[in-house]
Amino acid sequence: xxxxxxxxxxxxxxxxxxxxGSDLARTLAGxxxxxxxxxxxxxxxxxxxxxxIGDLDKGEAEARLEALLRAPVRLALDRDLLKPALHLAVExxxxxxxxxxxxxxxxxxxPLVTADNRLILAMKRRHRETPRVLALAELRxxxxx
Length: 145
Known about the structure:
CATH superfamily: 5'-nuclease
CATH architecture: 3-Layer(aba) Sandwich
Largest sheet: 5 strands, parallel
Distance between the termini: 7 Å
Oligomer: single chain
Structural class: alpha/beta
Strand content: 5-15%
Radius of gyration: 15 Å
C-alpha cells in the first residue's frame, strides 16, 4: 500500500474528472502526497481543454479546479527542482515539466505515481531504478500486497 508518493497532473486530474483510472487515483486519498507547484497549472490546462471541446462547461471546469486546489498535496517550488529536472530531461530526452515530478520523487526518495505512458516508457529505457515510477494501474497490485 502506498503511504507517501509524488503524483503528477495525469493522476490528480482523475480526482475531479471521471476517466479511466479515476477510481485508482482516488485510492491515494489516504497517502501523504507531494507534487511540484506546476501540478495545478497543468490540471487547469487539462480542464480548459475539456471545456474547449465541450466535455465540461465553464462552471464545471472552475468548480473542479477549486476542488483540486483544496487537495491535500504538499507542494514543492518548481524553481528548487529545475536543476535536477533539467539533468533528468537531458538524460531521458523527455520534457523538463514532466521531469520536475521525477526530480521531486528523487529528492524526496518517494515513488512517482503517474498515468503518463510516455513518461513511464522514458523511465523504462533508463538503466537506473531511481526514482521509482509506478503506473497508476500498478496501484491495484500495491493494494493487494
